Amino acid sequence: MAGADAQQAMAKSLGHDDTPPLGVVDFLLEQPGWVAAPFLAATPALDDQALTELIDTHGNTHAAGIAQRQGLSSVLVRKILTTGNDVALVSLAENHDAPLQRADFETLKAAAPALPHLQAALVDRHDLPADVAVALMWHTGPHLGRRALDQALAVTTDALSLAIEAAAAIGMAEGKASPHPEEAASYAVQKYSRHELKEPLVVRLLRDGDMDRFYACLDKLTDIDRATGEAIMAERSGFALMVACRAARFARSTFSTLVRLGEDGAQRSTDQTFDLMSAFETLDDASAERLLGFWQVLFAGAELADADDAGDTRQAS
User: Fold this and answer.
1) Could you state, in chain order, the average pLDDT of each consecutive group of 10 residues for the chain (317 residues)?
2) Residue extents of the structural domains in the chain
3) CA 201, 294, 225: angle at the middle one, nearest 5?
4) 0.85 exceeded by the pTM?
């Protein structure tokens, strides 16, 4: 191990050398990726072609070191992404100088659910597109919920308009996604007609585990469709539910009860609960409504796209 440490120190010392000894370079490049990483991350002696060939010849072992380079080119970004190597993807996301494009963020977002360090690296990037951050909330651990929300709140009305146009292109229409079971829908209509459709009823249905009626009444009371409602309740940090309750003008006590009754409510620490309640108090209604509107397009549209794909598969078979 001491030998490897010494080799890594040598790699670091040669990292900024314009003309390092070729024999030493060849030796370093044959070492494990973590040993060669300091050299690969900094050396000006290797151009994009040489670095690309290194990834080709050494597989994923050197990609993580290359991902740390300042002034990384878009060509190398794409090459690193194609490796799919966990360490390389995290290193790339942590490199705030890397010129990531929308497609690159989408690739990283897709890998994020299984990689907590990648989740943290993404939510800390200043150039993370807000609409990507919106979806990323469902791919981060509970402890990152607030940071992902802060990024998502930057989503603009223009982005929402574009999302609606994209959803319309695949046939999304109001009320088309996730219809409620007939009995639950009738129950909600009945409660509404009797002026009994109020926040305490929604709380009671969730407490009783009557989820079909819960989602139907939530929809009737707040216009949150079932697809979005299910996604909100499944989001582990509780910040999605906080946004929905704020947008729906629910009372603070209603939100407090709903978030405790949710699937992760009992596992949430006192500090996490306090953070949720503080966010509920400070989030403005307009931002909550804008973000909720984006989610509704996101989840209803995704469901319809999945249904269309299934239909294509059936026809092909």
Assistant:
1) 61 70 75 80 88 85 91 94 94 95 92 91 88 77 80 70 58 55 96 96 96 96 91 89 95 95 78 90 91 80 43 35
2) 2-128, 157-316
3) 35
4) no
